[in-house]
Amino acid sequence: MIDARVLIAKPGLDGHDRGAKLVARALRDAGFEVIYSGIRQTPELIATVAAQEDVDVVGLSILSGAHVALTGKTIAALDAAGVTDVSVVVGGTIPSRDVPKLLELGAAAVFPTGSDLSAMVEAIAALPSHARAEAG
Amino acid sequence: MSPVEQSVAGLLDAARGGNQAAMGRLITLIERGGAPGRAVSRASFPGSGAGYTVGLTGPPGAGKSTLVSRLIEAVRAQDQAVAVLAVDPSSPFSGGAILGDRVRMDEHASDPAVFIRSMASRGELGGLARAVPEALRLLDAVGFPWLLLETVGVGQIELDVARAADSVIVVLTPGAGDDVQTVKAGVMEIADIFVINKADRDGADDVRRSIRNMLRGGAQRQPGWTPPVLSTVASEGIGTDALLAAIASHQAWLTESGKLEEARATRLWQEVDSILVAAAQRRARDRCLQPDALRLRERVADRHVDPASAADLLLGDDGRHELTSRGSAA
């Protein structure tokens, strides 16, 4: 068991959650505890949930095309909520030219549609987790 | 104060000031156990006891999360803060879990006076029993007057967890076939209040009748309190006020009779007991992996030593007795 907690959230207005649920199940099968907070979440809401659930990773699923704006806003909201030791990963309909922009904003990894599911799980498993960090 | 104790004290102060990230981190420390977890329990225990814990359990699909969301609404209408622990089972295969109860409480996610935390059972013997009451006490010490605990009542662990509450609500639904029969084991002993949710569906009367018959049979959680049977349609907010009134009524009965403190004292010591039992089981398991125990195991398989004598040897002071002849110790 990995003992790491991941939040899967869909910011913004897009309601297509089949991909997000697929990723959630794959992570569960790999031993993660996955908090699924639903669709149509604001960046502030996502930050609140990340704080309460003390997750190690926040996974944003964005199929609306607004990934740069929403990722930026979510990272800012996480900082404002005092959630500092979390990795943000982004998945969805992301053109390759936007990947460097997202990484620059602070995303730890980007998974455009079509990314290999098991490679995604492995990449997420390699991110830092509170369980592996020093206690306290 | 050690560095760990200092950092826990800092987190506790921040949590009392309303910092939800601090609350989240403190619960993680409790879940992980070890020295930091102990430090959190020690620091928060003296400040706990003022809050009131309501547990909701029942089969999957009964609408517990929606009902919890309605209760949050009702408590907030009284201008009180509320913390929620939503517990779901971990996969026995992977150890992972999907924790989605909070989706149904989404309307409260942006309310700073509401704290919602999802917990996985993590399958470890005694693990859930330890983390849930400690997390509830932490939130109690942080200052929440209301603590809601939601669990899926399909196993012994979940029922044990439900016992951690002052008032336990068992939520059932009509038309689920042998619903009441399948949850029967243990449920009658833990319920303070029964709720038939989705009561607008066919079969609600049958469920009510089944419950009443079983109550007539005598098993109840507290002598002197007959659990009321309420009907709700949580998806439409019907019946929530009556439920809150029933909880208040149970709370008043417990407080006036002195039974609240008595029950809490009993539950606290039961917690000590379960931790001891879990520790003893771990020790027994480890003991049986030692070389002399493995040799003894072969002698039991060869029928040189009977099981009871083998156990006596292992329970003995140094446990390093070797057998020289059939059935007798060196």
Brief rundown of the structure:
By secondary structure, chain A is an alpha/beta fold. Chain A has helices at residues 18-29, 43-53, 67-80, 99-105, 117-125, and strands at residues 5-9, 33-36, 57-62, 87-92, 109-112.
Short descriptors:
heterodimer; A: 136 residues; alpha/beta; five-stranded parallel sheet; 5 helices; B: 330 residues; seven-stranded parallel sheet; two-stranded antiparallel sheet; 10 strands; 50% helix; 14% strand; disordered C terminus
Secondary-structure map:
The complex is a heterodimer of chains A (136) and B (330).
Chain A: E1 5-9, H1 18-29, E2 33-36, H2 43-53, E3 57-62, H3 67-80, E4 87-92, H4 99-105, E5 109-112, H5 117-125
Parallel strand pairs in A: 1-2, 1-3, 3-4, 4-5
Chain B: H1 3-16, H2 20-32, H3 34-44, E1 52-57, H4 64-77, E2 82-88, E3 97-99, E4 114-120, H5 127-142, E5 146-150, H6 156-162, E6 167-172, H7 179-182, H8 184-190, E7 193-196, H9 204-216, E8 229-231, H10 240-257, H11 259-287, H12 291-301, H13 307-315, E9 323-325, E10 328-329
Parallel strand pairs in B: 1-5, 1-6, 2-4, 2-5, 6-7, 7-8
Antiparallel strand pairs in B: 9-10
